Amino acid sequence: MLAGIRFCLMMGTKRFYWILGACCLLLVWLWQLPCLFVEGSDGFIAVIPARAGQPFSIHFIHSVQRTPVEENLQINGARNGFDLLSTKYQSFGVGLPFLSSEGDFQQQGDYFVLGNMDRHFSSLKLRTGTGTELSLDVAGKRYPLYSLLPSGSEVRLYIAPWYQRIVGYFIRFA
């Protein structure tokens, strides 16, 4: 009888260690999981798991031309930065691409589209502005940055391990 109880305790202990080990591996995996961070001056606006090739877009009203602009990007294959795929806009002007050396130019209805831009960024810094209506569409959700932050605020987009959210939280309140 005592041998049976010892055997059950041993089996229970082994299961406990297996479950504990699996939980530790899951935590290590989550800890290292690359995420897209959208960060404003007051903290994180969004933290989204980063999938290679995941598309997202930045929308704003051009400060000079006063027309809408959409920049379409994706998370690169290494999940450590971004690739600019195309820019869609309504009017030519300062700061808007148009050279054939910058990509494939075409007109789609009332819009001009410059595709195959082959531009790469490790991070992006955006700034809200009066009347620019800066917003971000990612993972099926729109983030109206212009209404979440004061005009003139910097917004950073970058890819980093998930644990940086926790570290950033503690640093902010230290």
Q: What order do the helices and strands follow?
A: HEEEEEEEEEEHEH
Give the proportion of residues in helices. 25-40%
Mean pLDDT: 82
Low-confidence stretches: none
What is the 3D shape?
elongated
The number of E-state strands comes to: 11
**Any idea how many domains?**
1
How far apart lie the N and C ends?
A: 56 Å
Describe the overall structure.
- The structure is a single chain.
- The protein has 174 residues and is of the alpha+beta class.
- It has one domain (32-172).
- A seven-stranded antiparallel beta sheet has the order 6-7-5-4-3-9-10.
- It has three helices and eleven strands; from the N terminus they run H-E-E-E-E-E-E-E-E-E-E-H-E-H.
- Strand 4 and strand 5 (82-89) form a beta hairpin.
- The mean pLDDT is 82.
- The longest helix has 31 residues, at 2-32.
- Helices cover 26% and strands 42% of the residues.
- The chain starts with a helix and ends with a helix.
Layout of SSEs?
Blueprint: H1 2-32, E1 34-40, E2 43-49, E3 55-61, E4 68-75, E5 82-89, E6 104-108, E7 111-121, E8 123-127, E9 135-138, E10 141-143, H2 145-148, E11 154-161, H3 163-172
Antiparallel strand pairs: 1-2, 1-11, 3-4, 3-9, 4-5, 5-7, 6-7, 8-11, 9-10
